[in-house]
């Protein structure tokens, strides 16, 4: 059975790219905002990994990921943050929760796939 990845991003071009790159190997659920993603999670869905944009309207990626990480249930779900913001490394280091991975947009799809594979194999061993 394919691993399930929740993708949260408001950029159609990024969603199309992620779908093209990942859909063959993973079961993807795509949401356009943190609000939609939280609603989906509250319906009892349990992704193996989350990929989220940092900058989104209404409920940004930082708030969305913080909510995941403080929840008892999704605390250990690996998260990869994608963003086009300047100083992404600095912003990630200032976050008050642990983030498993982050990539600057535009990103290399091969690098992303490698990161996903590594994180999913680590989570299987725990």
TrEMBL record:
Protein's GO biological process: phosphorelay signal transduction system
InterPro entries: Bact_response_regulator, CheY-like_superfamily, Sig_transdc_resp-reg_receiver
Pfam families tied to this protein: Response_reg
Keywords per UniProt: Phosphoprotein
Keyword Transport assigned: no
UniProt cross-references to Gene3D superfamilies, sorted A to Z: 3.40.50.2300
Chain positions with 4-aspartylphosphate modification: 53
Ranges where the Response regulatory domain occurs: 4-120
Origin superkingdom: Bacteria
Protein's name in the database: Two-component system response regulator
Taxonomic source organism: Pararcticibacter amylolyticus
